[in-house]
Amino acid sequence: MSNEAATATTAAEAAPAPEPIPHGLGASLPAADARAKTEGTFPYAADLWAEGLLWAAVLRSPHPHARIKSIDTTHAREMPGVRAVVTHEDVPGSPLHGRGTADRPVFASEVVRHHGEPIAAVAADHPDTARLAAAAVIVEYEVLDPVTDPEQAFEAEPLHPDGNLIRHIPLRHGDPDAAGDIVVEGLYRIGRQDPAPIGAEAGLAVPRPDGGVELYLASTDPHTDRDRAAACYGLEPERVKVVVTGVPGATADREDQGFQLPLGLLALKTGCPVKLTATREESFLGHVHRHPTLLRYRHHADAEGRLVKVEAQILLDAGAYADTSSEALAAAVGFACGPYVVPNAFIEGWAVRTNNPPSGHVRGEGAMQVCAAYEAQMDKLAKKLGVDPAELRLRNAMATGDVLPTGQTVTCPAPVAELLQAVRDHPLPALPKDTPEDEWLLPGGPEGAGEPGAVRRGVGYGLGMVHMLGAEGADEVSTATVKVHDGVATVLCAAVETGQGFATLARQIVQDTLGIDEVHVAPVDTDQPPAGAGCRGRHTWVSGGAVERAAKMVRTQLLQPLAHKFGMSTELLQITDGKITSYDGVLSTTVTEALDGKELWATAQCRPHPTEPLNETGQGDAFVGMAFCAIRAVVDVDIELGSVRVVELALAQDVGRVLNPAQLEARIEAGVTQGVGIALTENLRSARGLIRHPDLTGYSLPTALDAPDIRIVKLVEERDVVAPFGAKAVSAVPVVTSPAAIASAVRAATGRPVNRLPIRPQAAVVTGQ
Q: Which domain of life is it from (predicted)?
């Protein structure tokens, strides 16, 4: 043997064996598209192109409330390069659309009801031409006084043919005459947050030879979007196809249909592909936001601090149209008392129309707003009783078997006390240094104006809960198909990957069930059966359940011939690490050998147990399942400047079962960081209905420098027996809980009430020090 060969052999022997690629449930399987996204090669809607492409632009109302006296498109139509201009007169089908209620016009015709409402749309051969033509549409307005105070909406003239009141829920639970020894009251306001997706809306519409149209969109609910578009275009749903492009993040309903619908209309009118890429300002004006909320609370407790009664009034500002405000109100009213045992509750909830920007589904809607209020009330009770805030919460913590104010028994795991004890007992972070050299310790960051002597540290707590899936009788169903050919598995399911990790989870399910390493998830379009919207953990539960059932059906097809050959049932065979073995060791073969060129496939559905609408007194089993979270916040506050630095957030969460540890941790950290923005910086401000600074300069998102240390102290894996895999959604409940915990910590540091989110600097200033 030569020296070179000996050296090569020694090096090969010394080289460590390659680490096995993680697979199956419980492994930290990396996302299939992670490399493309990090390298910038992943295709998004804004990257799409087609031969003969035209560009679109939308004219939006500059007024929050006005009567339209005339619309003149003559100048726009006559501009060189303009191919089409459409208004309300060009809508061949239903003129109205909407996610929850169809009450929103495709184009305003007689009245505009919010700043940025679409009036007309233009298609031209260049994007600049399209924008100039849209600006050339002459609209004569009679400006009307906007109704921007939701309290005034009850007495104001109707802003919509359906009236100003969208929904009223009067919840009645227990004895109205019950009273406690200790009573605390509070008035709370929650501002308007925007989903602020990484990429603004973009899409492409391509006309079809059959007179239909294909829409290439970053849709999170393609079948619903298709059906609404078909109704608008006056077409059968089969002639409209929605193809889901890469979704650049979604923490809410990703797409504004006021953007989608004009796109298809222009393609149908011109017979050419039409592309529309929204500016960030158009994105802020068009899509829905979190409901600004006004909350009044009165808590009654006995001398030991146990809750006796909760009274509350909750008012959601829906903006101009209903959208999903009814669902948000149900969540707000249902969880108005939080994860606490409350024998008597009397809650009044309203959602009303105003001329403010439209509100709708944003992660944790309804639950986030009430969490901030009821946790502030718990702090007030603790202070009045002279009890430790964590101890007061423990005395009232909900558990499995307790009853919500809606009358629904909590049958899922509810380890609320365990979660709170975990964060309470976790060691606190070190105190700031006394020397001023480390400027990062100041709430202003480097170059901050604060002085170390003005900094006060506070510790606060938040307990939050959310519901999973739809509520009040929503038919939650998803369909999936699993195919196996040439040793490769393919999953077909219209569940959109929005960043929540469904595509990765689907691969893990099939790997775990069939023992096949190579699993692909097919692109999503409406030729597949529907899977529903990508929110409230639906796809982990419903779509994941459908994939699991389909994979198990394929597994049976794979194992039946072997079981028959050896005279045993398929239940006596197991698949582990790509090998099929029998309980007694008689049979041992590989999945590849068993497949032997076969093509197997199966389609299955998953539908959770039904729920029911809340009745006239707010009672009913309205929610499929619930998830819980406890957070301890540590903040430093400069009491002279009112600046706040979140030092650490310690979290314990009820997750049911960890399916992908790395993905779960990332989802929790992202949710907590989003909550930091809600607590301190994010507020889409408006003045008399006009959005002020609709851009990422005026709307302050938290950056990596604002993110605190996030300590995941405990994950409680107590499986929910009615959920596939026993898992629970993980991203929404940290969003709900962290703002309340941060506000609690600021109260502890300053002694101020802190009754508004986001927390304004003046609310954290302490005078007379």
A: Bacteria
